[in-house]
Structure formats: structure tokens, C-alpha cells
From TrEMBL:
It catalyses: (2R,3S)-3-isopropylmalate + NAD(+) = 4-methyl-2-oxopentanoate + CO2 + NADH. Pathway: Amino-acid biosynthesis; L-leucine biosynthesis; L-leucine from 3-methyl-2-oxobutanoate: step 3/4. Keywords: Amino-acid biosynthesis, Branched-chain amino acid biosynthesis, Leucine biosynthesis, Magnesium, Manganese, Metal-binding, NAD, Oxidoreductase. InterPro entries: IsoCit/isopropylmalate_DH_CS, IsoPropMal-DH-like_dom, Isopropylmalate_DH. Homodimer. GO terms for biological process: L-leucine biosynthetic process. Catalyzes the oxidation of 3-carboxy-2-hydroxy-4-methylpentanoate (3-isopropylmalate) to 3-carboxy-4-methyl-2-oxopentanoate. The product decarboxylates to 4-methyl-2 oxopentanoate. PROSITE patterns: IDH_IMDH. It is an enzyme of class 1 (oxidoreductase). It comes from Actinidia rufa. Its EC number is 1.1.1.85. The keyword Cytoplasm does not apply. This is 3-isopropylmalate dehydrogenase.
């Protein structure tokens, strides 16, 4: 069957914006068709690149599913729409989230984000901007509009990169954990939060998101090793006391998941002392952001960690957890693997195409097995390459001659 597959490039109907404010990025629509039977699964992916590093990352990722991967599967069709957001959008249109970008994102099946900082080198040129004109405001507005409430960040120490970890080999080897945290209602202004009559409404909104997050997280833990650690600061913070009560109440509906609790300061220490004790960690936004960055260095580099932001329905948002690294912009030194692995999460969690996701993950492992490394994960005895070359090697690792059943 695999031998009979052929690559057919045929356009299908896709939203195409003709906006004077977006003369460059909005006109780039790529459609890739691979088919051997009349029944085709069609997906539209919105790409949100910045400049320099994220843009090259997205180029590597875009070629991964639409080049050799596409030949491996029947009944799959991808349509890519590239739109500006964050710093790139500020440079082009003067706002961090243009209406055309938001509409394209809502109409797509999933969104892949490079980074928000845009065409920025060495200094953060938007530091003095008003809050509504900062790149990160575009991301917060997008999350709010898409109604995503849970951020999933897997952190695994790959056997090929155990020597790149900041921890001793015996401590780091075999680490495989997932940090999931709530994306709080960041779209509500500080002034609104201070209005007393809205306090109860905001509390209800956050509780609803917490309930949705925990249900998702418990299902995630069930699919992994069945262990869930809730991280809070319930010995000091009232919000954490409420958090722990809700966690215990909701977890009672999942008796097959082992629930434990840990204070955040202890969790930060245990992550470097004995990270293998963790399977799935659930926590709030601030704690989760910090702990997942800490976990990234256990894996060898922040350039290896993907993430997924998911809601109850609608398209998910997938992105590497790192920023744009302006200090190495345009130097071909960046590690694109976190973005490529974010594409795998997009296929798995966003589209339900687990076979395709596994193919990308396997290709990354094969590339590492063959000794290719970017500077951040390099160790003696391997081949030091740049962003472009390691992306090309991942594509080569997707071997069209090896049949995979769907």
C-alpha cells in the first residue's frame, strides 16, 4: 500500500486575506495534498512566525509534515496559512494581534507559533511600549479569544541527550514527566480586577477553568503512568487552599489515578533532587511556568521542550516554550527541535493524528541517534550543526520506504 502512495499537490479552498496592512505574510498559503483514495482528511494550520529564529524554526516544521511525511499517509491534506502576530505584527501593522490573524486562527484546525518577539536583535525594542502594544499582549489576546485554558509541557530526558543534562547521569536518566498548568483569565484588565462587584464573577470563571483543567489533567495522567502531583502553596496562600480542596474533590472521580500534593518550594527542590518521582504535575500559571523552565534544563536544553495550549473545544495553540533568542538571531545557531516536536503535539493533541505524530518524534530521535547536534545540546563525539542542517536531517529521517499502517 505504501508503495502505491503518490504526492499530489492540489489546492483546496482556504481563507486568503487580501489586506493592505498585511501585504507580505497574509499572501502565503501553502496546500499539500497526499492521497491514494477518494476519502481525504483535510486540515488547515495557521503558522504564526516571528522573525529570525522562530521563522527558520517554522520553515523546518512546515517542511516536516508537508514533505516526506505526507507521502507516508493516505487521506491527509494540509493547508498552511502564515500570519503575523506579536513583534512581527507590530512591525507590519502597529498592533500585536491583527484582526485578520485572529480570524485565520479561529478558522483553522490548529495554530503553530514560533515566538512573539518578532524582528528583534540584542535589545527588546518594545520595552517602553504601552502594555497594549507589547508583543506578549498579542499572545494573551489570542489565548483568550481561542478560550484555551490548559498548557501541557512534556519534559523527557532522551537517552541520546542524557549527557547534555545539567544533572548527573544517574539522576537524569529516564526522566519523563508532564507539567500542566492553568492559563488564567489574562484578558481581564487590572482595573477591572479591582472592582469589588466583579470579584465573585472572576472567582467563578477561574474555578470553572480549574475544574476543566483538572479534568483534562487527570485524563492525561490516566494515559501516562497514572500518577498526579498537585503543586501549590496551601500552607500560606488562600488561593492555594481553595486549589487543593478542588483538586481533591475532582480527583475523587478518578480513583485509578494516584494523587499526591507538594508545596511549590519543595517541588522545585525535588525536581533537581529526584525528578523521576514525577509523572504528571498540575499547578497554577506562575508555578507551572517556573517549574517547566527548570525541567527543561534537566532534559538538556530549553530548545527541546514543546508545548500545547488546549481548550474545551476549538483549535489548540502549539509552540516551543522558549523565546526568540535575539542574541543569536540570523546566525543559524538555534535549535528547531522544540518547534518540530510542537508540530508533533499539534498532530497528536490538536488533530488526533497519532501515527503522524509518532513519525515526527521518531525522526527526531533518529536524527539524534545519527549524532547531529545544535550548540545547546552538543557534546564531544557528535556533529555540531546549525538550525537549517538539523532540520534537513529530521526530514531525511522520515523515510518513505518504511511502511506504516494507518
Amino acid at each position: 500500500m505504501a508503495a502505491s502512495l503518490r504526492l499530489n499537490v492540489r489546492p483546496f479552498t482556504s481563507q486568503h486575506f487580501q489586506s493592505k496592512s498585511l501585504p507580505k505574510l497574509a499572501s502565503k498559503v501553502t496546500t499539500i495534498r497526499c492521497s491514494a483514495t477518494p476519502s481525504v482528511r483535510r486540515y488547515t494550520i495557521t503558522l504564526l512566525p516571528a522573525r529570525h529564529r522562530p521563522r527558520s524554526h517554522l520553515r523546518r516544521q512546515e517542511r516536516t509534515p508537508d514533505h516526506r511525511l505526507c507521502r507516508r499517509y493516505t487521506r491527509i491534506e494540509f493547508g498552511f496559512k502564515e500570519m503575523p502576530m506579536g513583534g512581527a505584527a507590530l512591525d507590519l501593522t502597529g498592533v500585536p494581534l491583527p484582526e485578520e490573524t485572529l480570524l485565520a486562527a479561529k478558522q483553522s484546525d490548529a495554530i503553530l507559533l514560533g515566538a512573539i518577539e518578532g524582528n528583534c536583535t540584542c535589545t527588546y525594542k518594545w520595552d517602553t511600549n504601552e502594555k497594549h502594544l507589547k508583543p506578549e499582549t498579542g499572545l494573551l489576546q489570542l489565548r483568550e479569544a481561542l478560550k484555551v485554558f490548559a498548557n501541557l509541557r512534556p519534559a523527557s530526558v532522551l537517552p541520546q541527550l542524557v549527557d547534555a543534562s545539567t544533572l548527573k547521569k544517574e539522576v537524569a536518566e529516564g526522566v519523563d514527566l508532564m507539567v500542566v498548568f492553568i492559563l488564567e483569565n489574562q484578558g481581564v484588565s487590572a482595573q477591572t480586577r479591582m472592582v469589588r462587584r466583579l470579584v465573585s464573577t472572576l472567582r467563578s470563571m477561574l474555578l470553572m477553568r480549574l475544574i476543566e483543567l483538572l479534568a483534562l489533567h487527570l485524563r492525561t495522567a490516566r494515559k501516562r503512568r497514572g500518577k498526579l502531583c498537585s503543586v501549590d502553596k496551601a500552607n500560606v496562600l488562600e488561593a492555594s487552599m481553595l486549589w487543593r480542596k478542588r483538586v481533591m474533590a475532582i480527583a475523587s472521580e478518578y480513583p485509578d489515578v494516584e494523587l499526591t500534593h507538594m508545596y511549590v518550594d519543595n517541588a522545585a527542590m525535588q525536581l533537581v533532587r529526584n525528578p523521576k518521582q514525577f509523572d504528571t504535575i498540575v499547578t497554577n500559571n506562575i508555578f507551572g511556568d517556573i517549574l517547566s523552565d527548570e525541567a527543561s534544563m534537566i532534559t538538556g536544553s530549553i530548545g527541546m521542550l514543546p508545548s500545547a495550549s488546549l481548550g474545551k473545544e476549538g483549535p489548540g495553540l502549539f509552540e516551543p516554550i522558549h523565546g526568540s533568542a535575539p542574541d543569536i538571531a540570523g546566525q543559524d545557531k538555534a535549535n528547531p527541535l522544540a518547534t518540530i516536536l510542537s508540530a508533533a503535539m499539534l498532530l497528536k493533541y490538536g488533530l488526533g493524528e497519532e501515527k503522524a505524530a509518532q513519525r515526527i518524534e521518531t525522526a527526531v530521535l533518529d536524527t539524534l541517534n545519527r549524532g547531529f547536534r545544535t550548540r545547546d545540546i552538543y557534546s564531544e563525539g557528535n556533529k555540531l550543526v546549525g538550525c537549517k542542517e538539523i532540520g534537513q536531517e529530521v526530514v531525511k529521517s522520515i523515510d518513505p520506504k518504511v511502511p506504516i499502517a494507518i
